[in-house]
């Protein structure tokens, strides 16, 4: 008999689809929900990540920043012009200067910041009081100043101050600057002027201790373009400190990196869950069609013709599920910003690219086709008589033995499995934008799936042996319900493995989201320091602490850190003058700040090595990761310091820990931490950090200036509030997208359980014919579903906790086993399995035996 033409096969496939619409609902639902989770989560997270990165750029005021602690040479400027050709660039000059006012005899040290008001800032805005455009407040004869300058010089808006050779009118008070956290923390009140005004003061001359910061704006920035520009700027300015928008604040950097990792995982989980749903639903459907397939083969149909019919049917289902899934995914991208926009305080732009739609449809189609290949190929080598007698076959072998027999019997199946894995690796690589990540994902998935199959088979074996010993002491419904798990034709091991994998994936997303949220809550507390105090003398410390306790606007406990001036003499035996540094000016080696701490400071995390115990007397050193990279040091390296004025007493410190600070505590700017003993006797000053109501920092400044006029107050309350809002937005986005993925996963798992309903029709008929009541049959099904849920939940949660622990370790997050959460999820999985099984099976309890028997 000739092979069936493709057109005829398509008509047969379509006719069967139309005749069995309800049966195929589970397949379409699995594909659609998987694709919807994939496209919806991926598109929504991409839109919000783009919007959040715009907010993160405002902390730098540009896409890239390069800071030099000296004036650039003409040659360096020429190299910079070449490196950033065609890009927008502006210069920010920061320096210390003296300011005087007519009503004050004493000059005041101020932090002067010169900008180009037509260009600065590229992102964010400068908030002024009274509100006005920046070009109006800065330029000609006007400058903007910090409120602390008005307090110290007893001035008001409209008064004048003198800087160098020029006198300027104070046009406005600077309430916040977008790059306040990435700019220099110079001592003294802020004065914002233009570059032209700075030139007219004649303060900037050769040898001036002024820092030059270059800000760049790209037309359409992405990570690769920014990285390329960063490398070019580092080459042009080898002594500059170059950072992009992702490095402006450690908390932002870590939060965005972790959020990206989790959201990528969410997309991959959606992929796996969709594949699981398709695999279970299509496997069930093809097993139900074995009778029809056997009849066709008995009438002379070739295996290739049968495969062609069901392959086309699979393609139809995959395309339909993919289209429905993309529509649902687009609906998610439209609906979630509307629901969350007010809560998050931002509205991301909706970007629905044709490539994303095509990717979603192709993903649904490829997954459907790939996971239908094994049951399709199974039909090729099975005789019709064997298929028709399958219901009375001998007891099946264990799952692992079946797998070995199948591999030996049919190498084509091996090829199909390799093709499935290659397809999953390709899709995972595209989603994660990394071939290596896709390969690792698939290898880990295979390892876990094999472990789950083995665990499921082992549990079924234990259950069977236990039932053989206790069956006569159990109620009939319990006995039949447990026996149903390994009855002939029941794919319990496969279903348990699939459900266990699904539970594991959903639980991983939940556990990671919980750990990430917990970490972010620590970074978004409302009592974190937002006002920093500089140059506190030893004899002022106790009195200052007492004063802060009396201030109603101060919340939480103030933090204080001792600071000692020093310089680096050598690193690993290499003199400082001969060191080859990476974007670290040589002159900075002469002005290193040391501090001491007996315990790991709050907000500091050890990345490598170990922090010392209280009472340590050896010269141990904890160094910030960025300085470690720039100085080229690692664990057990030796750095020799000359601390304080005692140059004859060098301190040879061994690097015992490389640490990272969250940028939100007093120790955040301490890159070199030692125990107290090696620094004992060296003069020190103190820096402080307190939290104040952002709207009442002025009152705190007045109280401090009245009693401690030499203590400099650095107000970054508005900048830290902006940072806190960004972190809260990241937290909410991850929570909602993880929640959506979990919901989609539960729907897919439910559809996989429900897909077994048609295999139960014949069983119900046989039991009814033998006199079983609906209540008895319902009790049997309930016990079977409950055990399925409990076993799958137990195995899935076990592997979820193991996987989560490994993933959290990679993300530098702590793992904490929550017994209550695991118990709750275990019970929820069991209840969901029972509820889904019942919803899918209650109708077949009313099936009349004669209707089914007539079809035999």
Automatic annotation (TrEMBL):
Residues 265-382, 736-849 form the ABC3 transporter permease C-terminal domain. The keyword Cell membrane applies. It is found in: Cell membrane. It is a multi-pass membrane protein. It comes from the Bacteria. The chain crosses the membrane at residues 24-44, 262-286, 307-332, 352-373, 411-431, 437-463, 493-516, 732-756, 777-803, 823-845. Residues 26-224 form the MacB-like periplasmic core domain. It holds the Pfam family FtsX. Keywords: Cell membrane, Membrane, Transmembrane, Transmembrane helix. Its main location: membrane. PANTHER family: INNER MEMBRANE PROTEIN, MEMBRANE COMPONENT OF PREDICTED ABC SUPERFAMILY METABOLITE UPTAKE TRANSPORTER. This is ABC transporter permease. It comes from Terriglobus aquaticus. The lineage of its organism: Bacteria, Pseudomonadati, Acidobacteriota, Terriglobia, Terriglobales.
